[in-house]
Amino acid sequence: MISLIAEEMKNRIPQFEPYSSDYQMVVYASKDLEEWMRQKLSLRGGSFYEALERMLYDGRGEFRVFVKSWVTIWLGKWRERVKLLHTKPKLPPSVEKRIKEAKRIYRRLEFRKELKNLITRKLISQGEICMAGFIAENLIIEEIARRLRNPNVDPKNLRLDPIDIYNALSRRVLEIQRERGPLIYLRIKPNLL
Fold first, then answer.
1. 99 and 130 co-located in one domain
2. How many structural domains compose the chain?
3. Are 22 and 16 in contact (CB under 8 A)?
4. Residue 19 within any structural domain of the chain
5. Nearest Cα to Cα of residue 47 among 38, 36, 56
6. Are 187 and 90 spatial neighbours (Cβ–Cβ below 8 Å)?
7. Which residues contact 82 (CB under 8 A, 6 or more apart)?
8. Which residue in 19, 73, 109, 165 has the fewest CB atoms around it within 10 Å?
9. Residues 77 and 97 in one domain
């Protein structure tokens, strides 16, 4: 699957070099395609890989046509939603502290995977096929950080209701569909270029 995606990207982006630092883009695309297929085919675990293997070998021509069109849509979303940066963006110290605390809280949530999966599924259903998992994670962290803005909230005793977070983010996902512009900021390490 990775080689098919790399081939399609090379066909669409003349300066694309799949065996350089551009390879990371292929990895992101293959993870996104796998996530998209998991959500759309409603398959989990071994059955997903068995279905993928059947598609790759039994219907190779059909799968190739599918990957061509999927990569075209994915690249459009990549250009719209991902911004590459050479340096880490500067944030006000209070915001940076709140985001760091929100990430810490997110990592210890017992319902983290389920919530991320639900938000990812919602993003994909709204047409966000590029880096939906990353966007979902960022949205959850952003929502936790928003709740930490209240000076009366003690981060150590913060109780988060997954249904409440999901409802708040469901509205946000619907708004994202109408927005244009980056949602993911990737830092490029200069020595890779």
1. yes
2. 2
3. yes
4. yes
5. 38
6. no
7. 130, 131, 182, 183, 184, 185, 186
8. 19
9. no
pLDDT tens digits, one per residue of 46-99? 666 777 777 777 766 788 888 899 999 999 999 999 988 878 778 888 889 989
Which tens digit of pLDDT belongs to each residue from 107-147?
998 899 999 999 999 999 999 999 999 999 999 999 999 98
Mean pLDDT, the chain, rounded, equals: 85
H runs (alpha helix) in 58-127: 60-81, 93-108, 112-125
Q: Please name the amino acid found at residue 43.
A: L
Tell me: do 79 and 136 sit in the same domain.
Answer: no
**Sequence-ordered list of residues with C-beta below 8 angstroms from that of 134, at least 6 positions apart, any chain:** 184
Tell me, yes or no, whether 100 and 173 share the same domain: yes
Q: Residue type for 16, please?
A: F
Sequence-separated (6 or more) residues with CB below 8 Å from residue 132 = 32, 35, 36, 120, 123, 124
Cβ contact 148:100 at 8 Å:
no
Per the structure, the complete domain to which residue 37 belongs is given by: 2-85
Say what the pTM is. 0.85
The number of angstroms, rounded, from the C-alpha of 193 to the middle of its chain's C-alpha atoms is 23
Does 120 lie in the same domain as 69? Answer: no
